[in-house]
Amino acid sequence: MTVSSSNEVFLVFGAHIDEEKSGNGWVSGLIQEELSKTGDRYQVSSVRIEDREAVLRELDRVKPTRVINTAGKRGFPNADWCEDHKDAAIRSNVIGAANLVDCCFIRNVHITHFASACIYDEDESHPLDGPGFTEEEPPNYAASFYSYSKLVSEQAIKSYPNVLILRLRNPLAADLHPMNFITKLIRYEKIVNVPNSGTIMTNMTPAAVLLSRHRETGIFNFTNPGTFTHNEVMELTKKFIRPSLSWTNFSLEEQRKVLKAPRTNAKLDASKLEKTLAKYGYTILGAQDALEEAFVIMKAKGYK
């Protein structure tokens, strides 16, 4: 993308030290890399988004023209963490998100909020090989506490006129960060093999910054068009970076027995996102092409 010559000042939330690990959040780091590439000025905040006074002070100090929020509790090593830390999940995913959006509204600042598409689950009208859920269709899934917190959060903030909501799903990029979907899969001895929508950040991060820069608002399914399966991710991992990789599949019923909370499987319709990005000259890749591109980049980087 062309290096920016604008006077934008981005403020990125989501880089504080977590209970699970220290340092910048994964998505926050990807956003920072993209802002560096485009030459945009940005600062990274370490304040807790549920701390209203601290957030307002931060907005007044930096005076950003754009805020990007990547903060939130998903849990480590997976979303089951939220089942045992419900207070922390609500404090960050619901109270924190609503507080930050409201503070930005008061200060007249546009905010891009990274949300979750794990609030949908396949049904008779939306089989995994059929039409995807659109942004206009009401969410139908809150069986895990993580999904419940993200559903409540979206409902709380979606009416604000200054917010852009980007729904991530199974996010992955050209790295092996602990929160990367690739890394999560290769950690397991057994995995299910079902098609799902996904967000390949290698291809999608520039789109997020572009949407923020153009002050888009409302809800977007922030996923690459199409789907990919768990096995396809593992096969590409084996092909490009880890030839010795092996795994075993098991059924959804068997998976449920080893998890504290059930998981959702869904296909999202990305046509609204494609049409909007086309206005700005950006084309996102289909899920299969974007996935392979990410692994080509990983191999070039020397990941093993």
Automatic annotation (TrEMBL):
Pfam families: Epimerase (PF01370). GO terms for cellular component: methionine adenosyltransferase complex. GO terms for biological process: S-adenosylmethionine biosynthetic process. One of its GO terms (molecular function) is methionine adenosyltransferase regulator activity. Residues 43-187 form the NAD-dependent epimerase/dehydratase domain. PANTHER family: DTDP-4-DEHYDRORHAMNOSE REDUCTASE, METHIONINE ADENOSYLTRANSFERASE 2 SUBUNIT BETA. This is NAD-dependent epimerase/dehydratase domain-containing protein. The lineage of its organism: Eukaryota, Fungi, Dikarya, Ascomycota, Pezizomycotina.
